[in-house]
Amino acid sequence: MSSSRTAIGLRGIRKTYGKTTALDGLELDVKEGEFFCLLGPSGAGKTTTLKTVAGLEQPDSGTVELDGKDMRGVEPYDRGVAMCFESYALYPHRSAYDNLASPLRSPRHRLPAADARDRIAAIAELLGIGGLLDRPVGQLSNGQRQRVALGRVLVRPARAFLLDEPLSHLDAKLRQQMRAELKAIGAVQNTTTLYVTHDSVEALALGDRIGVIRDGRIVQTGTREEIWYQPCDTEVARAFGRPRINLLPGAVAADGGFRSADGKVELPISAAASPGTEVLIGVRPRDLALGEGPGHELTGTVYVTEVLGRSVEVTVRLGEQHVSLVAPRADTAGLRPDDPVRLTVRPENLLLFEADRPERPGRRIGR
Amino acid sequence: MTGMTGLTVRKRLLGWLADLALILYFVFALFPIAWMVILSLKPANQLFSTYFSFTPTLGSYRTVLGDSEGIPFVRFFVNSLVVSVGAVVLSLVVGLPAAYASARWRFKGSENLMFTLLSFRFAPELTVIIPLFVLYQKLGLFDTYVGMIWVLQLVTLPLIVWIMRSYFADLTPELEQAALLDGYTRKQAFFKVALPLVKPGIAAVSLLAFIFAWNNFVFPLILTSNEAQTVTVGALSFLGGDRPKYNLTAAAALVSVVPPLLLALTIQRYLVRGLSFGAVKS
């Protein structure tokens, strides 16, 4: 599927709007045929990145490469990329059909009318908007408009698809369904896709690789496993997984182990840090188990339990800290607040970070 | 009746007073028009009678529209149409791209350019009329359609550029960006996406500009003599001669009000559509 050739390459892209810096030396490599998810909070520079690739924004410095060719001075319509805008950017004076047909009627992607009709029908069917094609886009709901906007991208051949939160306005059920279907669409499988989202679940589900963007810079790129098991810092660790990762503040003890700030939690780790270094130890809620088991043992008391369906989120007080864990419902039967509990965690599931600083989140310094 | 409180009485009284004030203003505002209508219906020998009774006649209209008295009123009327429509069309051709460019891109001196254009609207025409007169005489533009259409750009162009600029600014640039990525050039994006979306604005501003051009008095007064003279100046011709023919002037003025009036009635619909356009856009 994905080869090693770089389809989209961004080298040291800087872009400022007045005094605000949108992109700050952004580096990005998207491989040929890859589905790459760009994840970040709003204002991180995701949309600017897409528009820079598309040629709609000119970077102050740095180069955009498509299939290895420098795109400086190449107009958007000559870059051969298709983009789905977060605002949909549908032509309000035209019907859904005419919106979908727009690329296929343009001088660069023109198809004979009959072929265009077939393609549009196929894509509309795929996106579940087949019955809406005659309507003016003004009469469509937000979810329907978003699918028309996605269709306008998928209907045409492209060197790369640039998708800016294409599922954000669908209702939860439809979003989940579309998420599952999106990657199965032939056009998407065959085409390099740069997908922007602020939803970590979406990124984990869709991305062959994920890039985490923050303040106009890519802070980490990797497969979902790399991002999940080896987050580069506490903020990336916090961005993925609900409930959030537990981060206990403490310091490296004289014996090289971890001792929590209140002294109530001790974990024998092998930290590559000198004693006294302030650290955070991270453990994901699903990696903490209730009761006896292999690994390190911790004791605490139940603070609160919340049923999530078949599993239960239990918040446990460990000294002065709270940690959450997710356990099967059967294991938590009869747990009441203030009941003493034993927790176990496998050593390989512990992540060690530097303490957060005001200017930057703490970096990971060990497993 | 004792149940009726002083408050409701006062409310009702205030309502009557408001109605009365409105009626008074209405009379005040419409009186000149009513007076003109009466004047235009009076026969020439009863023009200066001070009492209100007269024998109404359409003779004045017949004279004015029949080009009698040696004054080619119909030609003035046609001149006005040609010159005003021509000025608006030229302003649209030149002004729409200008409005679009200034709404979409900041370029060096763009704001100064726009302000200069606007200043044509608030600078009195009389300040430039004498140099213009001399220029027009030398260039052979004096008393020509081309000359009038050109000089009326001072009236219509700033209006069209400034109003259309705000219409274009209200359109999200992402629509044209989408068109660019669909494979259209910038020019095609302008013509196929941006322009159709500001149609209500174009209609409204064209009608407005037409009325301004039609009503202009100073330029035709100084820069035309006979061939290209417009109704605003031409209607005054009836005041010349051995004695002023107020009835003919009134009839001519009323006839010349008709096109702007008709357009003003149509503009209302377009203006409402034009103004609500921004609100319904997603």
From TrEMBL, chain A:
Q: Which SMART domains match?
A: AAA
List residues of the ABC transporter domain.
Answer: 8-240
Q: Which UniProt keywords apply?
A: ATP-binding, Cell membrane, Membrane, Nucleotide-binding, Translocase, Transport
The cross-references to Gene3D superfamilies, in alphabetical order and at most eight, read: 2.40.50.100, Nucleic acid-binding proteins (2.40.50.140), P-loop containing nucleotide triphosphate hydrolases (3.40.50.300)
Q: Which SUPFAM superfamilies match?
A: MOP-like (SSF50331), P-loop containing nucleoside triphosphate hydrolases (SSF52540)
Question: Which InterPro entries does the record match to this protein?
Answer: AAA+_ATPase (IPR003593), ABC_transporter-like_ATP-bd (IPR003439), ABC_transpr_MalK/UgpC-like (IPR047641), Mo/tungstate-bd_C_term_dom (IPR008995), NA-bd_OB-fold (IPR012340), P-loop_NTPase (IPR027417), Transp-assoc_OB_typ2 (IPR013611)
* Classification via PROSITE patterns: ABC_TRANSPORTER_2 (PS50893)
Which GO molecular-function terms appear in the entry? ATP binding
Q: Which Pfam families match?
A: ABC_tran (PF00005), TOBE_2 (PF08402)
Q: Which PANTHER family match?
A: MALTODEXTRIN IMPORT ATP-BINDING PROTEIN MSMX (PTHR43875), TREHALOSE IMPORT ATP-BINDING PROTEIN SUGC (PTHR43875:SF15)
What protein name is recorded for this chain?
ABC transporter ATP-binding protein
Species of origin reads Streptomyces coacervatus
From TrEMBL, chain B:
Keyword Cell membrane annotated: yes
Q: Where are the transmembrane segments?
A: 20-41, 76-101, 113-136, 148-168, 189-214, 246-267
Q: What is this protein called?
A: Carbohydrate ABC transporter permease
Listed Gene3D superfamilies:
MetI-like
- Sorted alphabetically, which SUPFAM superfamilies does this protein's record hold? MetI-like
User: What is the scientific name of the source organism?
Assistant: Streptomyces coacervatus
Q: Which InterPro entries match?
A: BP-dep_ABC_trans_perm, MetI-like, MetI-like_sf
Q: Please give the chief subcellular localization of this protein.
A: membrane
Q: Where in the cell is it found?
A: Cell membrane
Does the entry feature the keyword DNA-binding, yes or no?
Answer: no
Kindly give the membrane topology term recorded for this protein. Answer: Multi-pass membrane protein
A Pfam family name for this chain?
BPD_transp_1
Of which family is this protein a member? Belongs to the binding-protein-dependent transport system permease family.
Q: Which UniProt keywords are given for this protein, alphabetically ordered? A: Cell membrane, Membrane, Transmembrane, Transmembrane helix, Transport
Q: Where in this chain does the record put each ABC transmembrane type-1 domain?
A: 77-267
- Its domain of life? Bacteria
